[in-house]
Inverse folding.
């Protein structure tokens, strides 16, 4: 292992600090009051909030006092953020969403289900701002697309780092640096992935940066940077249990993915969004989250 020259280390530490401030330290943007989220929809429905109507989509936020008009033959699943209790409605129905639970004005009562992620879990509304943040390298062009271990906490202490090749046949330089600017690994690979050597494990709670770069035959250099940390052991155990016991229905996966996003386990959340995209390919918000 080697230590960067002082001016290099300083630049990387500044970049790393800025990146993690953007990711984790700043509070999330203020969200409008939301009591529930749509976790599945078959057919169509209309959401009316403060006199304004819009089509319902999976991941639509529902404010207190909002009403949903569900036509005949449609099916709507909603979970309340405070506790995660799930309600399934079948049309025709008109539903008034109170702060603590929904009230059916017309139609049959909903089927209620205990949340898959555990009772008492407080979920937050999903937004595409912070979760979709892409951190780009300050060095050179970002033509090497990083596929994981960027803007996320990881469950693994020995992750596999992956990226898309700008063109075949290139060799890549990979370096992993901790939050002090110390280089943990510095080497060359001939593939579009890299596994940490045996015996080199990442520490939980520490911020890391990794850079992958390559020089093309014409002399151009491409470089991209990812920033990440390893989740604490307690969170890793909780996530492993929830993933192992995950139910395959769309609503349960939405709730699980929302929790993973909330815990900043964005690589794991992305896997769930991609599974959901197979089941609901027409949903634009799921597609946006799956393809970040």
């Amino acid at each position: 292992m080697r230590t960067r020259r002082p001016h290099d280390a300083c630049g990387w530490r500044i970049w790393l600090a800025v990146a993690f401030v953007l990711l984790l330290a700043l509070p999330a943007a203020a969200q409008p009051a939301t009591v529930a989220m749509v976790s599945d929809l078959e057919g169509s429905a209309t959401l009316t909030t403060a006199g304004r109507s819009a089509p319902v989509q999976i991941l639509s936020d529902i404010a207190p006092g909002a009403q949903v008009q569900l036509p005949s033959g449609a099916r709507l699943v909603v979970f309340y953020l405070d506790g995660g209790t799930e309600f399934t409605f079948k049309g025709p129905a008109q539903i008034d969403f109170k702060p603590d639970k929904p009230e059916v004005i017309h139609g049959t009562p909903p089927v209620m289900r205990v949340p898959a992620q555990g009772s008492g879990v407080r979920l937050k509304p999903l937004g595409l701002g912070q979760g979709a943040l892409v951190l780009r390298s300050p060095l050179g062009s970002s033509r090497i697309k990083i596929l994981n271990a960027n803007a996320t906490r990881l469950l693994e202490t020995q992750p596999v780092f992956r990226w898309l090749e700008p063109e075949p046949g290139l060799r890549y330089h990979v370096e992993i640096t901790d939050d002090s600017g110390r280089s943990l690994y510095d080497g060359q690979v001939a593939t579009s992935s890299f596994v940490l050597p045996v015996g080199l494990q990442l520490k939980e709670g520490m911020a890391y940066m990794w850079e992958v770069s390559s020089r093309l035959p014409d002399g151009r250099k491409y470089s991209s940077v990812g920033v990440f940390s390893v989740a604490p052991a307690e969170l890793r155990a909780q996530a492993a249990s929830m993933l192992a016991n995950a139910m395959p229905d769309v609503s349960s996966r939405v709730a699980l993915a929302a929790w993973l996003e909330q815990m900043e386990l964005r690589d794991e959340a992305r896997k769930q969004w991609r599974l959901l995209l197979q089941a609901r390919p027409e949903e634009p918000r799921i597609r946006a989250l799956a393809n970040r």
Summary: The mean pLDDT is 85. The chain is about 25% helix and 35% strand. The CA atoms of residues 74 and 227 lie 43 Å apart. The radius of gyration is 22 Å.
